[in-house]
From TrEMBL:
Residues 265-383 form the DUF6545 domain. Keywords: Membrane, Transmembrane, Transmembrane helix. The chain crosses the membrane at residues 15-32, 44-68, 80-101, 122-139, 163-182, 203-223, 235-257. It comes from Streptomyces albidocamelliae. This is DUF6545 domain-containing protein. InterPro entries: DUF6545, MAB_1171c-like. It comes from the Bacteria.
Amino acid sequence: MTRLALDPSALLDEFYISFWIPTAVLAAALVIKLPSIIRLWRDPLLRAVGGLLLLAGAVFVFCTPSTIVRVNRLTGVPNIAAPWCYSLITAMSGFCLLLLVAWRNGRYDRSAATRRALRRVVSVYGGVIVALWVLFLLADTPEERVRDLDTFYAGTPFMREEILLYLVAHGVACLITSRLIWDWAHTEGLDAWLRRGLKLLGAGYALNLLFNGAKLTAVFARWCGRDLDWLSTNLAPPLAALSAILVAAGFILPHAGQYLQDRRRIRLAHRELRPLYRLMRGVSGEGVPFTLRGTPELRLTRRETFIRDVLLPLTRHIDADLGTRAYDAALALGHPPERARALAAAVGILDAVGGGAGRRSEPVTGPDPSSLLREIAAISRALRHPATLEAVRSSAAVPEDRAAGVV
């Protein structure tokens, strides 16, 4: 414990995060987004998000120490993985910036000013990538460094400029992107799931800034003759991994959250219709056939269709006068108007199902069928409270019905 307390690098080693973990999370985000990207291929925003996730995944694949070693061995050039990884990081930084500039506040901005800004971003970050390779070709880096190249070659001519260039380009992009995300997340009228996703993206880019700060501090310390290499080799990598996980979660959350919310809404709607469905099934003598492979949406649609198909001919036997009295009775019992309408409709349907129309000597005037068919969810909810319905029904009964004991 004493050694860990005195040695920050040893403490951070205890919290090492493999780069394959954020790679897996980014891949999962891409897989979740892929069906929408394929289905809506013409949507440039979805294509851009897919490209960003793919590029971010490539960054972590190629920045993994084992991959760095393989790239160096495959080419036979010591440390050639460095400009390749720097180029991927720079490209991803520029791509993030392009994405946020082009789709400011979630809408594609086609203004001339935005087009000029996009061209500047492409020109600057494309030029940075070219400069990274030129500087690497000019630098002398004979000794392979897998984990500490940034600090080991921090004082080497041309390599020093290359390291500073990619860190500055990355930091500027993260700073601007964070600002744009912050502004977007605080836009009025934003979907709740999108707002949560943007907050995760903002947290991810904030960690990216900490990653950049740790790297720059370690490099500056080398220039000043001090050794703070642990900031670059032990602190920066887990910050980058956590940042990628938060960014991937930020892209996943709006899609997954909306999907789960829709599934929950459909299942709740299906369950809410159960009382009315059971009543209509008793009237028709049959129900909706069960299909094992039916989607929740299909099952809900079939249940709604079945209820309406049975309810429509039944409306001829519903007493509109009873419905009016039941509505007034529900209001008198303290129910709000919308709830009173549902209770009155439920009383009318139960009366018709129970043969109320057949006991009357005169034909009844039925309610508007379209109104009943629109309100099946509210009517079904009302059927869940038989005691309340009984109170409304008793209050709405005419004196003759009460004397006859009709309920």
